[in-house]
Amino acid sequence: MRERAQRQGIFVSFEGIDGSGKSTQARALAECLRTEGRDVVLTREPGGAAGAEEIRRLLVEGNPERWSAETEILLFNAARRDHLEKTILPALDAGKIVITDRFADSTRVYQGAARASLRPLVDKLHALVIGLEPDLTFLIDMEPAAALARGLARKSGEDRFEDLGLGFQQALRAGFLELAQANPARICQIDGARPMADISAQIAQIMRAWLDRPAP
Ligand code: TMP
Predict the structure, then answer these.
(1) pLDDT value at residue 129
(2) C-alpha span between 122 and 140 (Å, rounded)
(3) How far does the centroid of ligand 1 lie from the alpha carbon of residue 145, in Å?
(4) Which residue range forms the structural domain that includes residue 47?
(5) What is the pLDDT of residue 54?
(6) Is the Cβ–Cβ distance between 99 and 14 less than 8 Å?
(7) For the chain, what is the domain count?
(8) Phi, psi of 213 (to 5 degrees)
(9) Structural domain includes residue 58
(10) For 145-187, how does the pLDDT look when each residue is reduced to its tens digit (9 = 90+)?
(11) By the 8 A CB rule, do 20 and 147 touch?
(12) Positions in the chain whose pLDDT score sits under 50
């Protein structure tokens, strides 16, 4: 894989527990940047490319115990690699802003932190087959009971992870907050318990400041 410095585009991710509102915010940021005339690719994980979307169905539908944790990590990485090859890298090479609804932080937290001691496996696989981090990550933080009620109310048929319950979502929230503390330069923690428009405005402001920052 080529070095990051050679790429022209900007890679932004949205993260958060299920029902946190991150998908709405990812869409709002994409629209806002497009209005300003920027070339934006809005994508998601698992998915974001034809093959990766097929793998998504294996991951988000069905019984919560369907896969072992190890198999699940491999499937997420297979989907991410396809997404990277087919969607993310071509767009970054073309100088676009890529906004993804979830990326590797989700695997670190859902598979690595919330499920025992699998984080070393998650990190090794990421280094071996992905090796890319977002330039900027928005973590939409939210109280799990409120977020879970919102997520399950959608009845999307993709509730395999939501079905693991409130305790699991609480562990996820703690995992995301820990990641944000460990990566303050990349991850912006956003309070998700406010009106959607206020959150979007804050995110747009942070993004603009980031785009206007002096070259390193
Ligand atoms: P979504 O609801 O944001 O579309 O994500 C689908 C589910 O997949 C969600 O419950 C989180 C889960 N997930 C992981 O467990 N690990 C990952 O690496 C990703 C990208 C998602």
Answers:
(1) 98
(2) 22
(3) 18
(4) 4-211
(5) 97
(6) yes
(7) 1
(8) -65, 150
(9) yes
(10) 888 777 666 767 666 666 667 888 899 999 999 999 999 999 9
(11) yes
(12) 1-5
